[in-house]
Amino acid sequence: MARPPAPLDKLTERFGPHLNYVPPGGWQDESRNPAEKLVKTHCCFCGQQCGIQLKVRDNRVIGFEPWEEFPFNRGMLCPKGVKRYMQGNHPDRLLDPLVRTPEGFRRAEWNEALDFTARRLREIQDKHGRDAVAVYGGASLTTEKAYLMGKFARVALGTRHIDYNGRLCMVSAGTAYKGALGVDRAPNPWSDITKAEIIFVIGANIGECAPITTDYVWRGRDSGARLIVADPRFTPIARNADLFLPVRPGTDLALLMAILHVIIRDGLTDQEFIAAHTTGFEQTAECVTAWNPRRAAEVTGIPPDAIERAAHWIGESRRVMILHARGLEHHSKGVENCEAVLAIALATGNIGREGAGPVMITGQGNGQGGREHGQKCDQLPGQRSLTDPAARQHVASVWGISPEELPPPGYTAVEIMNAIHRGEIKGLLSICFNPLVSLPDASFTREALERLEFFGVIDFFLSETAAHADVVLAGSLQEEEEGVTASLEARVIHIRKAVDPPGNARADSAIICDLAHRLGRGRYFPFREPREIFEELRLASRGGLADYYGITYEKIDAQQGVFWPCPSLDHPGTPRLFEDGRFFHADGKAHFMKLEWRESGDPVDTEFPVYLTTGRVVSQYLSGTQTRRIGALVDQYPEPKLEIHPKLAAQHGIQNGDWVAVTSRHGTITLQAMVVRTIRPDTVFIPYHWPRDRSANRLTHRTLDPRSKIPEYKVSACRLEKAPAPPEWARERRPELKQGGRA
Amino acid sequence: MFGMEFYVDPSRCIGCQSCLKACEECETHRGISMINFDFIDRPDSIATAAYVCWHCENPTCAQVCPADAIKKYEDGIVGSSLKPRCIACSNCVLACPFGIPKLVPEYEQMMKCDMCYDRTSIGKRPMCATVCPSQALAYVTPESIASTRREKPVNTFWFGNQKITTKVYMMAPSEIEAISIDVADYTWEGEHELVPQAF
């Protein structure tokens, strides 16, 4: 049933994306009146969770003030943070529940929409079994909401299929860190970056995707650190690199293995540390024996002497920070990539000390907190395993159910979409997720959505995915509900409520609890406010790896955040892990993992000879559900462009500004070329924030890492042809809006 | 803010344009950004640079203004044009050696960075320098800049025979090296000139 009501332009006319350029009340008028209050909270976008003060007047966010006292960003904000307030009073905001009709959507009362949603979910489960319904969550949700989604799926619906969009983000690093170090968390606070002698950035476009982290890197350099950057593109952070390694997409593992090879070959390992604190070194050393710099150069396209130099700089330093993000993770060997980073850190003893550690840069707003408390398909609160009998017993007792009632682990995010496509899963409830833009192979995703018998969405804007829904429940923005998130430092911070949801929109947690009541499971969801959810979460996480028991909202405020684990109320939190040399495995040791080279899942060949890699731009965020509605951000980078080196462009007769058809094994899109010498000549880059016929994910493939189940967004094969004319999307009228906010 | 000075370091700039976006949030010029921002040479480089007004000791813009609309205040800040006086002639736009002033057509007035007078006059930092994620725009004490940065602050500029001294400092490299930014210069292509898979 879940086809978007036609025609598309009618939907766009009503639900946007419109571009909001002006604060509520206009630049010169209402918004100039003094704020009634300044609410100290955090940015709703990326994992850095910068502190920000929202200016509030008449229950509307009318602007912002930097929050210079918050220690992470000290007032700094990227353009998304500066303009995030423009979405609060946006005319595209959903103010009522919507129920689909043959012509489109009609407004509905809450009772009707919730009754309908609960009834349809139960009908499908009664007919096809509990697991015929799946739940999608998101990593922009507060930790309370994420916890609630996990409990809702398992206790209210009783389905084993719950997963979240963090599956597209952090899970490769999470799997690697859990396997090697025993816990899924960046071990060091960000202040350690400024104390390093070597800062090695691999697969992380810090300047655009974690802009505030730039200041930490620059401060490190000012104190004498040398900066190594490995990336297929000359990203903004590379402008000050002391050594730039232009790694071919999909070959990071070869580079990292060669670095480890040289470190071992030249006796630069920390034998004392390896002997005292690790297991499995010999096996890993064996894995890299064959990966000499010459062989790695053939694979990676990086000169052998540059690999030698990187290895020596790292091996000869006692304070090395290795920073990595999606560039390492989005691969069918994403876990191995991260395990190789950990192997280098462990082999050189660069962990558990000031200025020394491997650090994953979590991408999504609550990417850390949203993956710790039961929103992942195989996890229970506290970063516990769903297959661990003791963990099941503990959480079941907190929830007041028997452990047998807890379903086993279910499918991951992409696997859920695959199961929908093949008809195994027939009902879906989704919050905070826009899979039509963000999942690979978008045409497949659209087919799958159209096969759903029931599709319910909780969201604040009608995303491209939500346009397929049978019912859309108007939910809340981050600033409309209190809660906590955990930043990329694992610093648990306080999201303060600034305003009420507008119109008849409701707080997400209230919607979920109401649905649980209608599903007959209300006694397990008695929560009247997020604080009550957090109190239960503290108990459920107690004794787990991500132990929040000692954290309260008040303690967060007093300390400017609390780093987990924090097992008791008098515990200050744990900014840096492993300082005592003990890792979180039962044996107290860190475990070297086996490293094995594999080709990518979509290899280049004569028909598809060019590497395609995808990523982000600084002014847009993820699937663009929010940022494609903010005029100032859209103007900065309005449409996706094809970044291409002049050598490759010349082969196809492509000039800067030409339209180019990019074809992969999965589809074709036509984009304008941006001819730049800041990318490898064998690679093209497309940012992925846009939908439909300008969606980079029309070209990507569904190969997953076998362990983390992350898609391989960072390397596909494609071919290029100069297009005779601009594509249809380039002729679309862009709906604009100069007057800020709703009347 | 007493004791604070403004420092511009283009080598730190990551091109995020946060300064541009934040500038228009400022109380004195709601909705109009006063930041000058450039991609230096995007086909060849990711280098970007963001500038504020340099607030010259003897401001050329004020010297050439036929309407006496541009004032330098006691604290060295050169303001936007005074609305009752500005005749929108663009003399200042043409004469400024740094290319800072902009004519805002809808207001028929020259507007430029006034270092967030509404903020700096009450002890706050300018909006751009507060939010700048790379601190390419920084508003800090001279002691702080001297103790934390590799580069050295400079505020003397020569434009032909015109020597200009400014209130705002440019961070200049302590030693200058030619920097190549062509990725192809860094790649290794074995015995072949081009990467074989791609061509």
Structure explained in plain terms:
- The complex is a heterodimer of chains A (743) and B (199).
- With 743 residues, chain A is α/β, with parallel strands linked by helices.
- Chain A has 4 domains: 20-87, Phosphorylase Kinase, domain 1 (2-Layer Sandwich), CATH 3.30.200.210; 98-169 and 368-480 and 502-527, 3-Layer(aba) Sandwich (Rossmann fold); 172-360, Dimethylsulfoxide Reductase, domain 2, CATH 3.40.228.10; 610-737, Beta Barrel (Barwin-like endoglucanases).
- Helix content of chain A is 29%, strand content 18%.
- Chain A has 23 helices and 30 strands.
- In chain A, the strands form 8 sheets. In chain A, strands 6-5-19-18-17-7-8 form a 7-stranded mixed sheet, sandwiched between helices.
- In chain A, α16 packs across α18 (442-451).
- The two termini of chain A are 35 Å apart.
- With 199 residues, chain B is an alpha+beta fold.
- Chain B has a single domain (5-198), classed as Alpha-Beta Plaits (2-Layer Sandwich), CATH 3.30.70.20.
- Helices cover 18% and strands 21% of the residues of chain B.
- In chain B, the strands form 3 sheets. Chain B has a 4-stranded mixed sheet with strand order 6-1-8-7.
- Residues 176-181 and 194-199 of chain B have low confidence and may be disordered.
